[in-house]
Amino acid sequence: MLGINDTWILMGYILTIGFTLACILYGLLNWNKGGDEHGS
C-alpha cells in the first residue's frame, strides 16, 4: 500500500496528518479569542 511496507512508518504519517488537521481546526475555532487581554 503506497509503497510503505512498515506499519509504524504508515502510523507515523497518519498521526502527523491527523495532528496537523487537529491543530488547524483548533486554530480556526479559537481565532481572535482573548484579544482583549493585550489591549488589541
Task: Please describe what this structure looks like.
The chain is an all-alpha fold and 40 residues long. The protein is built from one helix and no strands. It has one helix at 7-29. 0% of the residues are buried.
- Per DSSP, what share of the residues sits in E-state strands of 2 or more residues? under 5%
Number of strands: 0
Q: Helical content, roughly?
A: 55-70%
> Overall 3D geometry?
rod-shaped
N-to-C series of helices and strands: H
Indicate the mean pLDDT: 87
Low-confidence stretches: none
Kindly, what is the distance between the CA atoms of the first and last residues, rounded to a whole number of angstroms?
A: 50 Å
**Total helical elements:** 1
Structural class, by secondary structure, is: mainly alpha
Sheet having the most strands: none
Q: What is the oligomeric state here? A: single chain
Radius of gyration: 17 Å
Which features characterize this protein?
57% helix, mainly alpha
Topology of helices and strands:
Blueprint: H1 7-29
Give a short overview.
The chain has one helix at residues 7-29. The chain has 40 residues and is mainly alpha-helical.
